[in-house]
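Q: I have 282 residues here and want to know how they pack in 3D. Can you give me a structure?
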Amino acid sequence: MLPSARSPITLSPQDWSIQVDESSGCYLLVPLVPPAKNHTNDFPTLAWFDVSYWQSQDKISGTNHGRGITYFIQHATLHMVLRRYLRGGLIAKFIAQTFVFTGLTRTRVYQEIALLEYMRTCHLPVPRPIAGKISRHLGLFYRNQLLIERIPNAQDLHAYLLQQPLAVEVWTELGRIIARMHLAGVDHHDLNIENILLDQQGKLWLIDFDKCGGFNPETWPVANIARLARSIRKKQTIHSTYHVSADSLCRLLSGYTETLRNENPDTLTKIENELNTIFSCK
């Protein structure tokens, strides 16, 4: 069943368990299959969300400082990313990481894990979620953290394009992937050039699905792919050397429209002129 804003995705009880720690008031979202290969008893615990736990074992391989600190962790065969969910905007100055609790399935971490699991069943290139933690506070509030697979030896497309151009077929494949995401009913609300990775095998990945979800199929998310085009053009204006051409964007569009033409031609008929205007392609 395709996701929608009215019918959010839920985790399958055949694949995930929800554990409750009464003493700490925490919920733990854990897969039923151990995430590390050949480590059959190594399931995520609350300790996995404690930075000091990994520091004591010298397993933190790096950090990234953005809105908050993201930790890169290497454990057994796992390469993981640990991050907290933080607020944006003005309210973040007063309440940085606390949210109103309206139910477990409505928490940010639950919704992102459920969406990623759904997208993986659709064979879309997204990271594998490892585990999630929800901490209740004062009954009405919660904080949450996510452990997710780190794509090894990958670079976001913005950093890549600062150094060299993408192959034509990569632009086309990117368009196909975005079309497949939309055909699966998923709208990436923050689809920009920095939320797309390219690994050393030349495979593209989509990341950062916080607050993303389904859309009304009668209102196709053209604004979604338009946002990506704007983010690329914005980078072009900022950086004197940026390896993107008008043909690059048209190749992206051709991959997108080719996939829609094969899978959902009626929708393409409705939006094709708008897409050509956005990408300035004929």
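Q: Anything worth noting?
A: The first helix runs from residue 51 to 55. Helices lie at 51-55, 108-121, 157-163, 168-183, 222-238, 246-263, 265-279.
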